[in-house]
Design goal:
Helix content: 40-55%
Number of helices: 20
Largest sheet: 7 strands, mixed
CATH class of the largest domain: Alpha Beta
Oligomer: single chain
CATH architecture of the largest domain: 2-Layer Sandwich
Low-confidence stretches: 5-24, 35-43
Strand order of the largest sheet: 3-4-7-6-5-8-9
Strand content: 15-25%
Shape: flat
Distance between the termini: 68 Å
Structural class: alpha/beta
CATH topology of the largest domain: Nucleotidyltransferase, domain 5
Number of strands: 11
CATH superfamily of the largest domain: Ribonuclease H-like superfamily/Ribonuclease H
Length: 425
């Protein structure tokens, strides 16, 4: 591997001929793992590179493009912004570990790597994908999510720490939940913790993949990872923002329409300003406005949750415009999952849910991975895009659901706390 470092006597030391002009690509020791005589792998020192110049980042990308796969993780914040702000990007590959400072480099240089066939290995990838979408404008073309794949070998949405302990007997350091990853310089403890997040992901992938191969579920895990990759991110839908308001369901239809309009305005304003939505307008203020339904800025000033900064100037006028738009209609609550099914079919949701949960337990698959209540409702509606009707889920379920719904099969207890599917004569 390059990055201005050469290997000597099994220890990485700086290659002065390649690194003299690039002193900021520094080698550091972080936390790794070594096996004790009791078989438990504890903490040891590993080496990582700190990347804070554009040439170094480009060289890192070239290095990773030559690999079949790499481990990846991010640290980010969104407490003071609408969009997640990337604070650190961590990479690991068989030749080393690197920490990239996105505050010092243009991370869009990662796009050639993300769009390549080199596989990206992550844990609990959804938020990382959201961060990459916003910061780089791209996500990995190929990915493997260790948390998702672990759902096929008996785990239920495990943390990275529990998975490393369960599969590799590695104990990783606990991070500080309140760490400010945007502050510079980062401490050595922060960097070591960040490096530990990716240091063992490739080994963990190998361990999980071996079990998937033995159970014939590699294709299932690959399909689930691709499903996650192409799933729409958590980017906001302004028109649906009102559904996230607490107590919005107690409002009357006209007030609910006002809440929808004002919440959509708030979402768009927050996106434009890259500011948290509640800094634009608190939830309490939206509910107060929805109930009072002010038609002038003067009336707005007396709504609950409103203070002077909300009603003065353009902000107040924009809120009133949203209120007036909302007053033109009524909004009825969307039906709960299954409420639009024929009443006679509703007990089938409970019955099928019980069997899906039991089947997941028997097959050692995360229940949420196999099928949610929404998936079951879609199947019973004969939705052509129902997830339970296609792919590995349909392969696992077979005709069980159809037989249950048609009455040619039933569920019974086996006397040991489990359910059995039996034929109905």
């Amino acid at each position: 591997m390059s990055l201005g470092w050469a290997q000597h006597a099994g220890v990485r030391v700086p290659d002065r001929s390649r690194c003299a002009h690039r002193q900021c690509c520094r080698r550091h020791h972080g936390v790794g793992a070594e096996r004790s005589r009791h078989g438990v792998r504890g903490l040891a020192f590993v080496t990582y590179w700190w990347i804070e110049t554009q040439p170094e980042l480009v060289e890192l990308v070239d290095t990773l493009l030559a690999q079949p796969r790499y481990a990846f993780d991010t640290e980010f914040h969104r407490e003071r912004t609408y969009y997640p702000k990337l604070a650190l990007a961590q990479f690991a590959w068989p030749g080393g570990t690197a920490l990239v400072d996105p505050l010092a480099v243009d991370v869009t240089a990662l796009r050639p790597l993300l769009e390549s066939d080199t596989q990206c290995v992550l844990h609990a990838a959804q938020q990382d994908l959201d961060v990459l979408t916003h910061s780089c404008g791209a996500i990995p073309r190929r990915l493997f999510d260790t948390q998702l794949a672990a759902g096929f070998i008996g785990y239920g949405t495990p943390s990275l720490a529990s998975l490393l302990q369960g599969e590799l007997k590695i104990t990783v350091p606990k991070g500080d939940r309140l760490t400010d990853w945007l502050r510079r310089p980062l401490t050595e403890d922060q960097k070591s913790y960040a490096a530990s997040d990716v240091a063992h992901l490739l080994e963990l992938q190998d361990r999980i993949t071996g079990q998937l191969e033995r159970s014939g579920r590699v294709a299932w895990a690959e399909a689930a990872c691709e499903e996650l990759r192409v799933k729409p991110g958590s980017g906001s839908d302004p028109e649906g923002a009102w559904l996230r308001l607490k107590d919005v369901r107690v409002l009357k239809p006209r007030a609910r329409s006002v809440a929808r309009s004002v919440a959509a305005w708030r979402e768009r304003r927050a996106m434009s300003a890259d500011s948290p939505v509640r800094q634009i307008l608190p939830d309490l203020a939206i509910l107060g406005i929805s109930q009072k339904q002010p038609r002038t800025v003067e009336e707005l000033a007396h709504a609950r949750g409103i203070d002077e900064r909300h009603w003065r100037g353009n902000l107040g006028r924009e809120i009133i415009a949203a209120v007036l738009e909302g007053l033109e209609g009524e909004v009825h609550l969307p039906a709960s999952e299954g409420d639009d099914l024929d009443r006679n079919m509703r007990p089938a949701i409970t019955l099928v849910s019980a069997w899906v949960s039991e089947l997941a337990r028997q097959e050692k698959i995360d229940t949420a991975l196999l099928g949610t209540r929404g998936d079951i409702v879609s199947l019973l509606r004969n939705d052509p895009e129902a997830r339970l009707a296609t792919g590995w889920r349909a392969e696992l379920l077979g005709d069980h659901v159809t037989r249950l719904v048609q009455g040619t099969a039933a569920l019974t207890f086996d006397g040991k706390g489990s359910l059995r599917l039996i034929d109905v004569p």
